[in-house]
């Protein structure tokens, strides 16, 4: 904490952190061993059960910040030690954190703890196609074209579609949100909230083009490779290759061993968390991607 100089002299500002005492019930050796490097960390209780899994580009700094957070008092009271696992970069930490939370189901990771079956909006290539809600159990999201948005429930998908229709003055009847009667305008047209494609005031082709344009920023990117690919990260001369197939994280290869440390799952499918971690940096060209042999 920097001192402050006033007209009456030097005033020392008190730094509250100087009197902070780390919880003595958490093993001090486990805290001292934490590296200032990327990776994941796990708070565990007295029965070795995982309480919370997190990630950081600086494990030590992040864990110590938990110990200073009053809002996490309940988790800290249950904790007895902290373990960690290094990764060669932030992407590896994000992928490993996501997978371990699903596998280990820690008590205090509520957002990522459950594997969700997602749904999406599908708008086929046909000229008169209407959006429909489809599920991951029926479609491989990593390989299927014309999918838009990722939603945890059908209700959320329909609400998002309704917001787009209202915002763009599209027709609720032609988008499947409202029953249509042939030869009659939809209710939204009657109150001037639809551009009139339902009754020919707007060409159907123009309506569909506007609908696709409105959905496009939610388009699910099809896995752009024939098979698995490796995302390479390096730290202090240590190289890791994170193996991804169809937006599913298979594991990381620690060089020079050159083999996946875990058995590959027999069944793998589109993983929403892996997709969200990777799709934007991949499209921006920020990732070092190389072919891998498994």
TrEMBL record:
Any single Gene Ontology cellular-component annotation: excinuclease repair complex
GO molecular function: endonuclease activity; hydrolase activity
SUPFAM superfamilies: GIY-YIG endonuclease
SMART domains: GIYc (SM00465)
Domain (GIY-YIG) ranges: 36-110
GO BP annotation list: nucleotide-excision repair; SOS response
InterPro entries referenced in this protein's UniProt entry, alphabetically: GIY-YIG_endonuc, GIY-YIG_endonuc_sf, GIY-YIG_UvrC_Cho, UvrABC_protein_C
Key words, A-Z: DNA damage, DNA excision, DNA repair, Endonuclease, Excision nuclease, Hydrolase, Nuclease, SOS response
Protein name: Excinuclease cho
Naturally occurring in which organism (per UniProt): Noviherbaspirillum galbum
């Amino acid at each position: 904490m920097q001192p402050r100089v006033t007209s009456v002299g030097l005033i020392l500002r008190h730094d509250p952190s100087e009197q902070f005492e780390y919880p003595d019930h958490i093993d001090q050796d486990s805290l001292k061993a934490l590296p200032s490097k990327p990776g994941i960390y796990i708070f565990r209780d007295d029965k070795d059960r995982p309480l919370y899994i997190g990630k950081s580009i600086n494990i030590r700094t992040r864990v110590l910040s938990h110990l200073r957070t009053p809002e996490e008092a309940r988790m800290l009271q249950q904790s007895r030690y902290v373990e960690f696992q290094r990764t060669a970069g932030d992407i590896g930490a994000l992928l490993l954190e996501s997978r371990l939370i699903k596998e280990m189901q820690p008590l205090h990771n509520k957002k990522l703890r459950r594997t969700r079956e997602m749904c999406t909006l599908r708008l086929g290539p046909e000229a008169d196609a209407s959006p429909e809600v489809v599920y991951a159990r029926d479609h491989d999201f990593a390989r299927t074209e014309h999918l838009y948005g990722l939603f945890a429930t059908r209700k959320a998908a329909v609400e998002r579609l309704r917001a787009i229709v209202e915002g763009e003055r599209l027709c609720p009847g032609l988008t499947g949100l409202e029953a249509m009667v042939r030869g009659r305008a939809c209710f939204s047209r009657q109150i001037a909230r639809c551009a009139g494609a339902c009754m020919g005031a707007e060409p159907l082709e123009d309506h569909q083009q506007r609908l696709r344009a409105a959905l496009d920023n939610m388009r699910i990117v099809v896995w752009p490779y024939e098979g698995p690919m490796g995302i390479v990260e390096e730290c202090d001369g240590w190289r890791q290759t994170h193996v991804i197939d169809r937006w599913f994280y298979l594991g990381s290869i620690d060089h020079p061993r050159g083999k996946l440390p875990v058995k590959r799952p027999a069944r793998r499918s589109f993983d929403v968390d892996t997709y969200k971690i990777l799709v934007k940096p991949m499209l921006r060209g920020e990732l070092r991607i190389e072919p891998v042999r498994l």
